[in-house]
């Protein structure tokens, strides 16, 4: 694997996340912790694979706050440590992070935060930079896969120098990109953690705030000479684009497409907080028009404009274009969604008044005219055979039988798709990890005001450990009335099947002391039951039974994620017996494909019969139990 | 091998679960080993769950590029699924875009539910032929079954891409990458699938 190649100078293809991991290895990281979250989920997995070879400690932590606390501990003893999370995870870790900034660190500590502009795999496109600024932490932003490595490596040095964690903020388009990376030298430092009786790392004095500000001033002074800030374009450019992250690459390409490459300078900022003030002022003093290109919020933009305001008398008049002015905007508006070369070309064409018509050959409407019909959209769907589909089916059916218009609350995981058609639009709330259980607790206390509907909240197994347990304790203590369904697919499926405290193995594959959720629930004195969602009838009954109880109760619907279950194994063969399938005449209204809606239950329009798409089916057999004609046959090869 | 225009922009598109990411990985690792600069812009995450997926692969001699191909600038589109092929062409094709398409539909939920209609695949092909000069349609899923599993359609398509003659490096870089990334029977299956796809285009 490329990440542990020894020869410096060699170029290998790495993903952005692997590149971050390689950077940490080059820096001699000793301790790495994370909770899996897209787009940075693969960083820790990469380190876990080489943990033995490099003598690292690598863990999947129960949540981001705990991950950060553990990494901080390693840093306090002088070791280099890495903690990785998505933007949402930083919210979870915020309380500790703000204290840690004050106490400071010792061994280099890098916080990798993955932001997800355009919410490719997140519920929001949060820009973590404003939070990191509030935390008083330096922020670096890689613009390419190569820089993801180089910055991670260098961030350890800066952290050690400042005695402060450094944030590497990496967006999806870098984390999930891949490309050739020139490797640097691997270091294998001797590691001896030291934490003597006289060592103190305490967050308790206003003095520390003053020290923190001094650290940031030092970071600011160094930023102007940073290798990660770069300029390309004419000398003394009057027209300047200031860009960060992959937007710098997009800006260069957009200027090229517009024929403006020779006349407009691009100042790429890698150190986005604190700003490289001297460097910026140097370019701003010649500029009369400045455009900002960054994702998502106008972070650099606001801070540079504030800097310019403070130096107005040296700078002369500059016109600023960006999100504030509304000029840099994608289809959804300024400051919404990610940028790309086309969005920037459109924006720059308007700003610099050059013609630009875009470059698509035809529109969707024109394509549909040529085609003579509509191009149907493709919405997200739970995988074929997903146990969540069966669980949602059972909950939906049970609520219909129950007849009291029960409400269903959601949470974060693959099962979030319960908000759309594939999950029968079942979920009515969806916020952040563990929120469904807390909200259910609130709804479950509204009886006195006449709210008597049954309340069900669904939560995944990994989410259960991450954030649901305190809400369950609260519910037990305050006697809230709701039913919590744990959709236990025995993995963290959404982010690529990482283990969690309910599993038998750790991040590095070693044996774990499994924390069974049943034991936690029993310890809370909450009644619970377990059912297999593939056994649809039994599960419907279990939900119905439990709806009759009061107080908090838990139903565990346990069945391995369909993708994990079939990995490396032969799948069950499932097919439709056309003698039994009565097809279009079926009173069932095409039950399998239309109602249950597994993507592998397709329809053979020519014969008017159901069919199973063998390229998609994962062989769970649920459709076979639901078909009213018993026309679907399962040939079992797996138990 | 045809002349290599910088950068070579390849879009690999399909539906979550069809193995897009692996196909683009094989191409990018091979490109790096062959000494080219390469960048792949990948959309995965929730899109693993049945949505449209797209990988942008950009290969150049020595200039680094951003991970996203500008609209209208795809040199090659490898579509694992007819509808997604057309959808991507609308945004990224120009009359010179070479299009390689698997003929096997993967039905969106709306079509399964009978709310939408999946366009006639023959009409999709016709439409594509009106838009670009060079189109290769192949039964990649069927060929993959022949090789041992319908899931290997991604390697059939990778083989077809190599067979198109558009890549600036030889097929041996791709087969070596497949041998590096996979083990045992999966490796053999993928190599067989690659070969079948290659032969479809290279003759
Ligand atoms: S057995 Fe039926 S429900 Fe299960 S994956 Fe196959 S088609 Fe879908
Ligand atoms: S990855 Fe697993 S849990 Fe997620 S949708 Fe697919 S089958 Fe369901």
UniProtKB/TrEMBL annotation, chain B:
UniProt xrefs under Pfam families: POR
Keyword set, alphabetical order: Oxidoreductase
Superkingdom to which the source organism belongs: Bacteria
Database matches in SUPFAM superfamilies: Pyruvate-ferredoxin oxidoreductase, PFOR, domain III (SSF53323)
Residue ranges of domain Pyruvate/ketoisovalerate oxidoreductase catalytic in the record: 16-198
Gene Ontology molecular-function annotations: oxidoreductase activity, acting on the aldehyde or oxo group of donors
Protein's recorded name: 2-oxoacid:ferredoxin oxidoreductase, gamma subunit
Originating species: Desulfoscipio gibsoniae DSM 7213
């Amino acid at each position: 694997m490329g990440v542990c190649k020894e020869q410096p100078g060699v170029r290998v293809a790495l993903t952005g996340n692997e590149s971050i991991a390689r950077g940490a290895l080059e820096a001699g990281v000793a301790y790495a912790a994370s909770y899996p979250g897209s787009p940075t989920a693969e960083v820790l997995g990469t380190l876990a694979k080489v943990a033995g070879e490099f003598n690292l400690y690598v863990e999947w932590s129960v949540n981001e706050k705990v991950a950060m606390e553990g990494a901080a501990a390693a840093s306090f003893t002088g070791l280099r440590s890495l903690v990785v999370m998505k933007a949402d995870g930083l919210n979870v870790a915020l309380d500790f992070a703000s204290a840690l900034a004050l106490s400071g660190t010792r061994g280099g500590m890098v916080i990798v935060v993955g932001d997800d502009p355009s919410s490719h795999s997140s519920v929001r496109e949060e820009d973590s930079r404003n939070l990191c600024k509030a935390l008083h932490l330096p922020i670096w932003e890689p613009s390419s896969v190569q820089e993801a490595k180089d910055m991670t490596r260098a961030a350890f040095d800066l952290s050690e120098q400042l005695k402060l964690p450094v944030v590497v903020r990496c967006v999806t388009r870098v984390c999930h990109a891949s490309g050739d990376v020139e490797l640097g030298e691997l270091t294998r430092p001797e590691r001896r953690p030291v934490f003597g009786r006289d060592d103190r790392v305490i967050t308790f004095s206003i003095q520390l705030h003053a020290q923190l500000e001094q650290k940031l001033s030092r970071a600011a002074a160094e930023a102007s000479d940073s290798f990660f800030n770069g300029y390309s374009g004419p000398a003394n450019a009057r027209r300047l684009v200031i860009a960060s992250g992959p937007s710098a690459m997009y800006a260069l390409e957009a200027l090229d497409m517009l024929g403006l490459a020779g006349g407009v300078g691009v100042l790429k900022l890698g150190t986005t907080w604190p700003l490289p003030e001297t460097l910026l002022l140097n370019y701003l003093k010649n500029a009369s028009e400045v455009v900002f290109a960054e994702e998502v919020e106008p972070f650099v933009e606001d801070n540079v404009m504030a800097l310019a305001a403070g130096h107005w008398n040296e700078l002369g008049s500059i016109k600023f274009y960006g999100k504030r002015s509304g000029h840099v905007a994608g289809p959804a508006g300024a400051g919404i969604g990610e940028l790309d070369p086309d969005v920037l070309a459109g924006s720059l064409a308007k700003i610099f008044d050059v013609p630009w018509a875009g470059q698509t050959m035809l529109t969707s409407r024109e394509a549909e005219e040529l085609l003579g019909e509509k191009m149907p959209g493709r919405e997200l769907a739970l995988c074929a055979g997903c146990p969540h589909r069966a669980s949602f089916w059972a909950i939906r059916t049970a609520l219909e039988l129950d007849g009291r218009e029960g409400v269903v609350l959601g949470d974060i995981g693959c099962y979030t798709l319960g908000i759309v058609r594939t999950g029968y639009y079942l979920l009515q709330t969806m916020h952040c990890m563990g929120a469904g259980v807390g909200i259910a607790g609130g709804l479950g206390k509204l009886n006195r005001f006449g709210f008597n509907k049954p309340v069900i909240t669904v939560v995944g197994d990994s989410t259960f450990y991450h954030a649901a347990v305190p809400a369950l304790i609260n519910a037990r203590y305050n006697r809230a009335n709701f039913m919590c369904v744990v959709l236990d697919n025995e993995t963290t499926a959404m982010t690529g099947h990482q283990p969690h405290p309910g599993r038998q193995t750790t991040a590095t594959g070693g044996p774990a002391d499994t924390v069974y959720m049943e034991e936690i629930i029993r310890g809370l004195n909450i009644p619970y039951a377990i059912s297999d969602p593939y056994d649809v009838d039994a599960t419907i009954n279990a939900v119905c039974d439990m709806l009759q109880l009061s107080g908090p109760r838990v139903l565990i619907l346990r069945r391995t994620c369909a993708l994990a279950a079939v990995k490396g194994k032969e799948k069950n063969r499932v097919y439709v017996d056309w003698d039994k399938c009565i097809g279009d005449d079926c009173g069932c209204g095409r039950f399998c494909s239309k109602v249950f809606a597994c993507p592998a239950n397709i329809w053979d329009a020519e014969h008017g019969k159901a069919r199973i798409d063998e390229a998609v089916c994962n062989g769970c057999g649920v459709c076979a139990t639901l078909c009213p004609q018993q026309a679907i046959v399962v040939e079992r090869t797996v138990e | 091998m045809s002349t290599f225009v910088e950068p070579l922009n390849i879009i690999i598109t399909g539906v979550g679960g069809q193995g897009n990411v692996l196909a683009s990985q094989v191409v990018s690792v091979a490109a790096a080993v062959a000494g080219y600069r390469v960048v792949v812009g990948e959309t995965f995450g929730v899109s693993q769950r049945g949505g449209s997926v797209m990988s942008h692969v950009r290969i150049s001699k020595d200039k680094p590029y951003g991970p996203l191909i500008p609209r209208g600038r795809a040199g090659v589109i490898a579509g694992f699924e007819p509808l997604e092929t057309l959808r991507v062409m609308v945004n990224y094709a120009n009359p010179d875009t070479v299009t390689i398409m698997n003929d096997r539909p993967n039905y969106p939920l709306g079509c399964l539910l009978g709310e939408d209609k999946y366009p006639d695949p023959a009409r999709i092909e016709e439409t594509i032929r009106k838009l670009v000069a060079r189109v290769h349609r192949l039964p990649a899923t069927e060929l993959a079954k022949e090789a041992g599993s319908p899931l290997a359609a991604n390697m059939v398509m990778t083989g077809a891409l190599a067979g198109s003659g558009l890549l600036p490096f030889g097929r041996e870089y791709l087969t070596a990458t497949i041998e590096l990334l996979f083990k045992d029977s999966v490796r053999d299956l993928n190599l067989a699938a690659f070969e079948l796809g290659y032969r479809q285009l290279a003759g």
